[in-house]
């Protein structure tokens, strides 16, 4: 049974810790819990270096077996054996050390989907530096905010990135970010040549990475870390304030990455595992890098988009490299579905064994199409629910053990105590809906928010004392399966990107003459959710285009709203609270279902807003 682990949890967890290669094996599992200051540790007296679990032990046992296959947009392929990958990581680790990086220092990684993005993460881990991977889609200001928060000593970026037919000016954006950052922690910028473009180099700060790697030694003694030493900081958005840097640690996170990768996908060393996530997302951390490599699984990485230069490119990648497990997002699945089935029918896809989905609710349509057409009816679809904060998969139909069902994440993995609580904190027993909480710690949980443990406690443990609150709601169905119903806070999930509406609103508020505004999410056929902004702007003030540009500048183009409606006023309660529920309905054009408006300060405002939305804008 799924709860067999509970009878003797400590023994279960100690057994799981043995997945890793330790320098000093831990003697205890969990200490601390979710009460009070929520300080939890796992395997605290163990000592290890995560890269020895991910590389050295496989390089010793199977040096020539394939560790990583990378295919570029242009068709170029790189195959690295475990021995090759270990050498590459050691070279990069030595280059970082040579550039002055020490154990505990933060290193910002801002790279496209090239082999070096994985190598650089592992190189940081090799020397005990804490990586913070930054999304290539962040604007200069978005990057600057995170640099100021994480205070890295060194940045690794690329000259440019390729994205379909587009070229993304990575170095230029990073230069802009560094000039906006108020802190001055960054001493060195290493620049990887990806396209070979000429980019400006700042004397005394910027160095070409290539020559540094060429001159570096291929062996690098690993720094030995305590299990609770930080492995990385990764930024994500919440309902309030600036992005928060979740801190994951060397021991427990690695145990969770390895366990969940094996259990959710039934994955082992015979598999070719392709997780399409970018390494700047938690999914890339756990299922492109740490989970599969810890388990000795061959990792496939592809540089580009699903349908560039031609539709069906991802299917070709699967056939070419014999991918056995394919893990992607509902957004990608919906986009590929929209291309029609002819493209798919022309491909074999015979190597596939398991399919996975992550990042947003998949919905029955996309699930069924994925199952029937991509998996040809024979591959289980594993819908995996989890978060940046949880480190790894939490609720999913463990491949082979739990029967999947369309659109349902199904059951918590062993070690996960998922509960549903109502608004008053009373557990929802049996069938019903509630706020999804975790009643006990697990090794992979984030330990804190970088620089602010108080914010960590306030964000996750204040709503329901003694419980971690996920920010999602879920429904427990008659057979005990969990169906995730979506965020209950002010976070909108656009194509799997978590965007806090407060961040959007603060960008829009900078617009000329903007009096007030509200950002909300609405259902979107391809992206899952789309953002819509309602803004009250004085005559002669900023228009829709100017307000969208402010969002692109402050956060990145991926966060630009679908529409900005300029309205005379926002619907408010008599106490002055904006009624977002109404705005969501109006933006989704569900105006028959607005409900009782009599509690509004000015019920007539609603009609005027509807007129703007129906007028198209
Ligand atoms: C791994 C990841 C987390 C939020 C989460 C939830 C949504 C993720 C989901 C899902 C429904 C799934 N989410 N997986 N919703 N079904 N299978 O996505 O991390 O970027 O932190 O986002 O994404 O709302 O709370 P992150």
UniProtKB/TrEMBL annotation:
Every AMP-binding enzyme C-terminal domain range: 503-577
Keyword field contains Ligase: yes
Superkingdom to which the source organism belongs: Bacteria
E.C. number: 6.2.1.1
Pfam annotation, one family: ACAS_N
Acetyl-coenzyme A synthetase N-terminal domain segment(s): 4-54
BP term (GO), one: acetyl-CoA biosynthetic process from acetate
Keywords carried by this UniProt record: Acetylation, ATP-binding, Ligase, Nucleotide-binding
SUPFAM superfamilies membership: Acetyl-CoA synthetase-like (SSF56801)
InterPro entries per record: Ac_CoA_lig, ACAS_N, AMP-bd_C, AMP-bd_C_sf, AMP-binding_CS, AMP-dep_synth/lig_dom, ANL_N_sf
Span of domain AMP-dependent synthetase/ligase: 55-439
GO molecular function, one term: acetate-CoA ligase activity
NCBIfam families cross-referenced by the UniProt entry: Ac_CoA_lig_AcsA, PRK00174.1
Family to which this protein belongs: Belongs to the ATP-dependent AMP-binding enzyme family.
Name under which the protein is recorded: Acetate--CoA ligase
């Amino acid at each position: 049974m799924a709860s067999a682990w509970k009878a003797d949890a400590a023994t279960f967890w100690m057994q799981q810790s043995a997945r890793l290669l330790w320098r000093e094996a831990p003697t205890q599992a969990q200490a601390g819990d979710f009460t009070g200051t929520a300080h939890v540790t796992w395997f605290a007296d163990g000592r290890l270096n995560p890269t020895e679990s991910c590389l050295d032990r496989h390089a010793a046992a199977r040096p020539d077996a394939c560790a990583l296959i990378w295919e570029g947009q242009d068709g170029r392929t790189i195959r690295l054996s475990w021995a090759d990958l270990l050498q590459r990581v050691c070279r990069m680790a030595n280059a970082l050390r040579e550039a002055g990086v020490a154990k505990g220092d933060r290193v910002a990684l801002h790279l496209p989907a090239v082999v070096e993005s994985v190598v650089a993460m592992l190189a940081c881990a090799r020397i005990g530096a804490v990586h913070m991977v930054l999304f290539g889609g962040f604007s200069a200001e978005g990057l600057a905010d995170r640099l100021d928060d994480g205070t890295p000593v060194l940045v690794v970026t690329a000259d440019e990135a390729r994205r379909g037919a587009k070229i993304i000016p990575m170095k230029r954006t990073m230069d802009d970010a560094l000039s906006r950052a108020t802190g001055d922690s960054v001493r060195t910028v290493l620049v990887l040549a990806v396209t070979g473009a000429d980019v400006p180099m700042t004397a005394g700060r910027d160095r070409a990475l290539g020559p540094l790697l060429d001159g570096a030694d291929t062996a690098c003694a690993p720094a030995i870390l305590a299990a609770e030493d930080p492995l990385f900081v990764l930024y994500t958005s919440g309902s309030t304030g600036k992005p928060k840097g979740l801190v994951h640690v060397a021991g427990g996170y690695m145990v969770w990455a390895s366990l969940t990768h094996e259990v959710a996908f039934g994955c082992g060393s015979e598999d070719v595992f392709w997780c399409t996530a970018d390494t700047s997302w938690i999914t890339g951390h756990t299922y492109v890098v740490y989970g599969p490599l810890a388990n000795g699984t061959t990792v496939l990485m592809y540089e580009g988009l699903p349908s560039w230069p031609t539709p069906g490119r991802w299917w070709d990648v699967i056939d070419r490299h014999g991918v056995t497990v394919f893990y992607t997002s509902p957004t990608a699945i919906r986009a590929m579905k929209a291309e029609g089935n002819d493209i798919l029918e022309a491909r074999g896809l015979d190597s596939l064994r398991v399919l996975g989905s992550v990042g947003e609710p998949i919905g029955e349509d996309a699930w069924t199409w994925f199952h029937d057409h991509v998996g040809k009816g024979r591959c289980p679809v594993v819908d995996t629910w989890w978060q940046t904060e949880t480190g790894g998969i939490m609720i999913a139909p463990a491949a082979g053990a739990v029967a999947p069902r369309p659109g349902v994440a199904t059951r918590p993995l062993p070690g996960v105590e998922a509960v549903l609580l109502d608004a008053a904190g009373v557990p929802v027993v049996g069938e019903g809906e509630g706020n999804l909480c975790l009643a006990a710690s697990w090794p992979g949980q984030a330990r804190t928010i970088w620089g602010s443990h108080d914010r960590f406690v306030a964000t996750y443990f204040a709503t329901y004392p003694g419980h971690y609150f996920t920010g999602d709601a879920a429904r427990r169905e008659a057979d005990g399966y969990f169906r995730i119903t979506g965020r209950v806070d002010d976070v909108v999930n656009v194509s799997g990107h978590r965007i806090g509406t407060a961040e959007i609103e603060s960008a829009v508020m900078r617009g000329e003459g903007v009096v007030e505004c509200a950002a909300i999410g609405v259902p979107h056929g391809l992206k899952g959710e789309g953002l819509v902004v309602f803004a009250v702007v004085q005559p002669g003030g900023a228009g829709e285009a100017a307000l969208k540009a402010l969002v692109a500048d402050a956060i990145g183009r991926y966060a630009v709203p679908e529409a900005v409606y300029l309205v005379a006023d926002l619907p408010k309660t008599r106490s002055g609270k904006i009624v977002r529920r109404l705005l969501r309905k109006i933006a989704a054009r569900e105006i028959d279902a607005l409900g009782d408006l009599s509690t509004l300060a000015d019920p007539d405002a609603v009609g005027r807003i509807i007129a703007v939305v129906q007028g198209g804008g």
